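User: two proteins, same treatment. go.

Assistant:
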Amino acid sequence: MKKYLGQIIFNVCVAAISVLLFGCTDLLDSAILSIIVIIAMVALLSWGNYFFIRAASLGRKAFQRAYIIDEHTFESLNQPEDYIEVMKDLKDYAPCRQEASRLIEQWEAFQKKSVTLNAISDGAGVYELVNQDIQSVMLSNMMLFMKRTAIIQSASRNGELNMHKDYLRMLTGRNEKILNDYTNLLIEVSQMTDSERKNTEIKSLRLIIESIHDYKKEMESEDI
């Protein structure tokens, strides 16, 4: 009941306003005015209920303010799941909605590839280390994404916003490249014999290690 309290109060208020309009005024004396008011009330009810239903589908309170990045956001980042929860919230923040959705999709793709690599490589140590490094890069990109979103919140001009959105797209592009490298690694590992999988000099493995190294250097030198 408490979950729908706001929606119930809204509908009761609209109904009360309708009763007052028709009971305390002369609207009923005019067919045209009566029709206009009825249409307006129906439109208001439709919009209001859609607003509450959409808020509920997004897991938000109806009058919750747009998501804001603050110091508490970063303090809560302890596990990968914490990063994903913030990114899910940012999916509802218009300036970065598409990019946030893409980062979540990339993380889910990485998780699936990770399970596959573990299965076909028999959990070989070198692949596990690569997996950990890729996870570190993707989480670091999410951190940079959040920091830039915090700056976007204070952007006052479209030019600023476009510049920041370009940066967010760069982060998703970086993830896309490393996921493509990961796919190549999966393909190569799947075609090897058990003894060949232990060879750390295979081409795709060397390339992905180099990519991770380059990405980490970029992130260390980047300003948000």
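Protein 2:
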Amino acid sequence: MSWVRGMGMLGTEEQIEQLMAWGPERAGAYFHPGARGDDRFLASDFYGWMILLDGQFDGLAGQDSGRAEAVVQGLLAVLDPHTAPSAPVLAGERALADVWRRLCSGMSPAWRERAAKDLSDFITAYRTESAHRATRMCLSPEKYLRLRFDSGGTGIILDITERLHGFEIPAMAWAHPLIQRMRDESLVERFQEIKGVGPYTAAVMASPASRDLSVFGIDVWNRKIFARSILGVPDADAEVITRRMNTLFPGHAGTAALYLVEHEYLAAPVAPLLDPAGISTWNQALEGTTA
């Protein structure tokens, strides 16, 4: 990860050690086990850049929509083929420019266009999330599900898999149900390996990316959130919560649960989801999304 030092992404050795403790090189190896040599370094660099970007939006950029807009616009300019060539100004932009150049090497124009869109969607999701925090907005089911998919980075991770393994999947093939199922199963397997968890926990972690709308996990913290939100009590057994969520949101409990937890932490209202009309709207909209 030479760009960490050479491009000034982090200012001190302590910060660099903290980044490396997250194991971006292991993420690259787990998600792309067939990558070798320079390609393995490329995978590590990409996931290291993703970790640093995510950390930036956990701080001031995530709380200030104006700052978020500036960060996002600078990164999107790196990916825009119509932007007049110039040296990126910020360290994060320079790192992205370096990684993007290497990712595009040897790939077709069609792949580059698809990957640029997927990576742009991932970056733009941070701006959207920051704006929602500022306005305390409650999203419609369609917009919420789209945001969760984009912010998970699933599209660009799959694009990079093609690049690092030396193949390109035709556009028509991506829509085939078999390809979609293989993608979802592969994500769950990778989460099991990386995190050292069982299949259920891995499915919970992968659910926003794989669009499994039914799966959600319950720990001691979000159990209390669910109990207050859907039962009106301080706490409740996980089985009681699961039954209630599945009754309110049949087939969509995972998405609704994620929404409730996130809006608890963001101090945003959830009443539109929990009143009878809101529940009906969510269920109908999500049925249309997955049809």
